Amino acid sequence: MAKVVGIMTTSHVPLIGKAIHLGLQQDPYWKPFFDGFPPIREWLEKVKPDVVLACYNDHGLNFFLDKQPTFAIGTAATYTSEDEGWGIPTMPEFPGAEDLSWHVRDSLVRDDFDMVTCQEMSVDHAFTIPMALLWPDQKWPVKVVPVCVNTVIFPLPSARRCYKLGEAIGRAIANFPEDTKILVIGTGGLSHQLEGERAGFINKEFDLQFMDSMVTDPQWATQFSDLDLVEQTGNEGVELLNWLVARGTIPGPVRVVHSNLHIPISNTAAATMLLEPV
């Protein structure tokens, strides 16, 4: 049967993609962030997942202000990255795990989640940068299932709802009949705000508490409304909702394989965690 072998969460700042392109991994500004990934790559070499299910937020590549689903899932055969205007080179296309995608979609709809199904879909930096951080050669050894969460237009899905979505994805994976090892990724955050009076806002104390809760009390953040999360983490820090979806996919306890927090990268608290089921 299919199983979630781990959860990897990380920031997806567009500037990371440019740093990768320019080879700045050892630059003093970037090194503390990129140093968080060799232990994760060692784990990948050992575990060798078959599929990545990535929980992320689209930045206008597929959905814009006129059409913004709360939750969407890709069911395509392949996914291409496109030029978003950030100066990030496009990456090789990603092969889709079609059978798993359709199975998860069907299971979620039957579990009362109204998923938008995308049979054609492009993926932006929120998806591509974490993949390039895991596999720097960009020769993808996995198939992918993209799951998009609205973190753009208010009201956002509640933290509670996002965690429940993760639980439902976990149940769907557990019922998938093929012997498949799945790495779930949650991308974005942590605290940051890019505009307005609080531009540059970072809340290290909240970030550390949230990271700890991913292990010790995964539903801790579900007490906060979407506006509470904006107050605590900044307007873009609400991307931590993707982390909650990812965490919900493992129902039991987890252990920390690796964890890293570096402040700041492009006005962002750039955090990375790798968790595996106990």
TrEMBL record:
Domain Extradiol ring-cleavage dioxygenase class III enzyme subunit B: 8-261
Pfam families: LigB
Keywords: Dioxygenase, Oxidoreductase
Gene3D superfamilies assigned: LigB-like
Highest taxon, organism lineage: Bacteria
Protein name: Protocatechuate 4,5-dioxygenase beta subunit
InterPro entries, alphabetized: Xdiol_dOase_suB
Coiled-coil regions listed: none
NCBIfam families documented for this protein: PRK13364.1, PRK13365.1
Source species of the chain: Azomonas agilis
Gene Ontology molecular function, alphabetical: ferrous iron binding; oxidoreductase activity, acting on single donors with incorporation of molecular oxygen, incorporation of two atoms of oxygen
